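User: My advisor, Dr. K., asked me to get a structural model of this assembly before our group meeting. I'm new to this, so sorry if the format is off. These are the inputs:
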Amino acid sequence: MNIDQLQRQFGIDGQVRIQPGAGDLPCIKITHALANATIYLHGAHVTQYQPAAQPDLLFLSEKSHFSPDQPIRGGIPICFPWFGPRQGHPESPAHGFARILPWQLESTSADAKSVQVVLTLESNEKTRASWDHDFTARYTITIGRTLNLALQVTNNGTTPFSFEEALHTYFRVHDIHQARIDGLSGTCYLDKTDALKQKLQPAGAIEITSETDRVYLNTVSRCVIHDRGGRRRITIDKEGSQNTVVWNPWINKSRAMADFGDDEWPGMLCVETANVGCGQVTLQPGASHTMTATIEPHTTDKTL
Ligand code: TA6
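Assistant: The format is fine. Below is the predicted structure of the whole assembly, which you can bring to the meeting.
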């Protein structure tokens, strides 16, 4: 369907509007008393979530591509069915194909508390050419006082398959030097800046003081980003997720990314809800798995 047809079928007066976005890619603009948001059909990519009377919660690079064959840099990329570079397949796109394919709009609904959008990605000739499995991915986005994301994957085939997934959320922070992360102390992580060595996260809040790229193992509890400079806390609760990924590219990695500004790294922090590596999910034929993240901003009237 073209944008006009999508608007006719899924638009909701004053709350949901389908329109051309950046790069003329179709996007869904959500306007609600509790929050505004923007979702691109490309990659089912949430690029904006702005709670009422607050700054946007998500970081979006000013240099991001908005083209059908490139991922959007920032917001909440969906990594599926693999995470990072695909072992043994250098020709495959990093983080899988879900974030660089058009998703279908299945439904929109709105009430006093929230707006809900459901998008789907079905296996097809193109996906099977690189990952030979029949699946349906259904992504339910609920925009309100909180941002709730639910990614359900169903095995439609006759043999089991395993997959990795991540909601690769780029949070906007006022200043990374003042940010802290709670909720991961005492857990183990793989350090991608140090040959994937397994390390123990000491007690206390995490500070980001250099390039940071960590896959935390067996982490199921709440994480909290203390955006002290922004006088805001962001809580991230999750279900169906074994891993948490923490990433900030810092100076050199930022310079190496064409779709990321050299000076953008102090204003962002990725805390990702994921199932990767040993946390990958295996689905029997006909089975489904859902991973959810619930993101909630809390303004703080004083620095922490
Ligand atoms: O989640 C962290 C990470 O895996 C980093 O290693 C870095 O590659 C980042 O994702 C961004 O990946 P991308 O393919 O979007 O440039």
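One thing worth pointing out at the meeting: Residues 71, 84, 94-95, 168, 192, 213, 245, 247, 270, 272 surround 6-O-phosphono-beta-D-tagatofuranose (CB under 6 Å).

User: Perfect, thanks a lot.
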